[in-house]
Amino acid sequence: MSGCAFTSRRSDDLVFIQMTVNETRTLAQKKALYRRLVALLTENPGLRPEDVFINLLQVPLENWSVGLRSAIRAGVIGKPGLTVPRTVPRWNRART
């Protein structure tokens, strides 16, 4: 399995990094991110490049909702019959 990332020996310093990101980056941008993360982690705290595993979970933009903006943009909220559930803040709940 020449060239396979899983054939190198790992140390006890093995680090797994998993990030959930928008599905908007190019292959070149992702490769630049991988190189930069490995460079930073080898510089400080001194990890070996072989001990850094990076995994990106790419999610379509419409699957994000921050402050309901994305859900509104995707048309999930605002359709007839669909409402945003209102919750009572924890500090404002009646004590039982």
Walk me through this protein's architecture.
With 96 residues, the protein is of the alpha+beta class. It folds into 2 domains: 12-59, Macrophage Migration Inhibitory Factor; 66-96, no CATH class. 23% of the residues lie in helices and 17% in strands. It has 2 helices and 2 strands. It has helices spanning 27-43, 69-73, and strands spanning 15-22, 52-59. The chain has a two-stranded parallel sheet. Helix 1 (27-43) links the parallel strand 1 (15-22) and strand 2 (52-59). The longest helix has 17 residues, at 27-43. The protein is elongated. The model has no long low-confidence stretch (mean pLDDT 76).
- End-to-end distance: 62 Å
Number of separate helices: 2
CATH superfamily of the largest domain: Macrophage Migration Inhibitory Factor
How many DSSP E strands?
Answer: 2
In short:
This protein has helices at 27-43, 69-73, and strands spanning 15-22, 52-59. The longest helix is centred in the middle third of the chain and has 17 residues, at 27-43.
